[in-house]
Amino acid sequence: MRALVVYCHPREGSFSAAVRNTVLERLQAAGAEVRLHDLYAQGFQPVLTTDEWTDYLDCPGNQAPVADQVADVTWCNTLIFIYPTWWYGLPAMLKGWLDRVLLPDVAFIMPKGEGDNIKPGLHHIDRLGVFTTCGASRWLTMFIGAPGKRTLMRGVGLLLAPRTRKVFAAHYLMDSAQEDALKAHLAKVARQVDKLTGVKTSSAIPQAQTQ
To answer: Does the model's pTM come out above 0.90?
Structure first.
């Protein structure tokens, strides 16, 4: 199992960092090879530049500005996203990662003729995990349409292998969450990762960090 973890949060010590640590611990317990892309720590540039837009369909030259990121997407068979939900969607940093890294001839194949649709390009990935936190309630997030979740679980998910194994966990009402709820959510994250890897879940509850 080769897992690429794309982590997006600006502050170390956040609850998202605790989720990240739980995910990494469970992947390690499953014996997975893991590559972590901490977008803020790496100083990832999320803006698709004019030159990149101009060369967007120039394959494989379009990969040059993000060659290291593309190499890890090509390498992995498991893709995991960890991020806070802001304004019901993805942080700009993570949305920029999708814009710049999931390119034509990397994530999808461009249409060949009039009326054609794009074709999936990530059939080597057969496991997808999405882990997030939300300030809003689950009801309100669903009422708005949960655009962040849909972008990853449906949008990216459609580019992956048929019958890809998918897991999702969100902690809602994050701003008023208490310690017991945070610990319980980390235990849920651990169970979801174990579903992804097929490893029996540990009964231990991970320690929560402050938000």
So the answer is: yes
Q: Please name each of the domains of the chain with its CATH number.
A: 2-197 (3.40.50.360)
Are the C-beta atoms of residues 195 and 128 closer than 8 Å to each other? no
Among 60, 61, 70, which residue's Cα sits nearest to residue 100?
A: 70
- 12: Cα within 13 Å, side-chain hemisphere: 4
Give the pLDDT confidence of 127-138 residue by residue, as tens digits: 999 999 999 999
Mean pLDDT in the chain? 94
What is the C-alpha to C-alpha distance for residues 186 and 196, in angstroms, rounded to an integer? 15
pLDDT in tens, 42-64: 999 999 999 999 999 999 999 99
- β-pairing verdict for 165-171 and 127-134: parallel
3-state secondary structure 75-99: HCCEEEEEEEEECCECCHHHHHHHH
- How many Å apart are CA 107 and CA 120, to the nearest integer? 7
